[in-house]
């Protein structure tokens, strides 16, 4: 697990839950969403790095991320 300073902050995620119908959101709910987002981001990052390496690039590019997203999404 990353150190806290390397994690996505909870506050911006928590704000996304609020609406006219929801007035409170548990910390556990926001933490679960953060954990899922971070894990998904790791999968995309690993696949994008793999794509970049196979292409012989030393720089990870936007296209690598887009291709990784398509591959991950299609699974």
The profile of the biggest β sheet is:
none
**Tally of distinct domains:** 1
Q: What is the gyration radius calculated from CA atoms?
A: 16 Å
How many beta-strand runs? 0
Give the CATH architecture: Orthogonal Bundle
**Outline type:** elongated
**CATH top level assignment:** Mainly Alpha
Distance between the termini: 25 Å
Poorly predicted spans = none
Q: What is the fourth-level CATH superfamily?
A: Histone, subunit A
Strand content: under 5%
- Can you give the mean pLDDT? 91
The CATH topology name reads Histone, subunit A
Q: H/E order of the elements?
A: HHH
Helix content: 55-70%
- Structural class by secondary-structure content: mainly alpha
| SS field, number of helical segments | 3
Task: Provide the fold topology.
Elements: H1 10-17, H2 27-54, H3 62-74
Brief summary of the model shown:
The chain contains three helices and no strands. It has helices spanning 10-17, 27-54, 62-74. The chain is elongated, with a radius of gyration of 16 Å.
Task: List the main descriptive attributes of the protein structure presented here.
mainly alpha; Histone, subunit A; 75 residues; 3 helices
Describe this structure in words.
- It is a single chain.
- The model has no long low-confidence stretch (mean pLDDT 91).
- This protein has 75 residues and is an all-alpha fold.
- The two termini are 25 Å apart.
- The protein is 65% helix and 0% strand.
- It has one domain: Histone, subunit A.
- The longest helix has 28 residues.
- The radius of gyration is 16 Å and the shape is elongated.
